[in-house]
Amino acid sequence: MFKTKKMRPAPPPPTEAFSSSDVSKVANISLRQLQWWDERKVVSPQHVGHKRVYSPEQVVEIQVIAELRRKGFSLQKIRRVLRYLQREMGRRLSEVLSAESDLHLLTDGKSIYLEDSNERIIDILKNAKQPMFLVSVSDQVRRLSSAPKKPARAESAANGRKARAV
Fold it and tell me: Which end of the chain is more exposed for a tag (fewer CB within 10 A), N or C?
């Protein structure tokens, strides 16, 4: 008379997994917010029974999304960033945020940019593929500190006079 739903065995949780309450505390967001993001497929964790289980990569993504939300970015804009990363770059947000990544997310509080090389930054929210001019101060400092140091002409002349006077 009634059809019962066939239950598949739940996949084992990842080796390092975080519960919803753990993620809520770490990202400083409510449990309801996590549930809503799961329902809207912003970040979809693994479901083990009735519990949501998050991987470390998903926790990092949630932390960044939560921070962008606190900075005033709408979820719609954040979803555009996530879609752009997936479609155009073939990457997830957690891959962009990893230490080994050659991509960097930047924001000025109004827009979100993707640096995909030393010379190019893309305004993701405008889907502008035209590069912006970039000057990296830290690169200039590194270049200066690694440059061979020669004494200034005035210093070398003064040192020469002192050596002759002795």
Answer: N
17-73 pLDDT, tens digit per residue, is 899 999 999 999 999 999 999 998 889 899 999 899 999 888 888 988 898 898 888
Q: What is the CATH number of the domain that holds 18?
A: 1.10.1660.10
Task: Tell me if 46 is assigned to some domain.
Answer: yes
> What distance in Å separates the CA atoms of residue 61 and residue 27, rounded to the nearest whole number?
10
- Both tokens of 13, joined, read 């949780």
* Residue-level length of the chain: 166
Flag whether 36 is in a domain.
yes
Domain count of the fold of the chain: 1
148 by DSSP, 3-state: which? coil
- DSSP calls for 19-49: EHHHHHHHHT--HHHHHHHHHTTSS--EEET
What are 106-165's pLDDT values in tens digits? Answer: 887 788 887 776 667 777 777 655 555 555 566 666 666 776 666 666 655 556 655 565
Please check whether residue 54 is in contact with residue 20, taking contact to mean a CB–CB distance below 8 angstroms: yes
Residue 112: name the closest of 122, 102, 120 by CA: 122
Q: Largest Cα–Cα distance of the chain, in whole Å?
A: 112
Cα separation, 12 vs 114, whole angstroms = 35
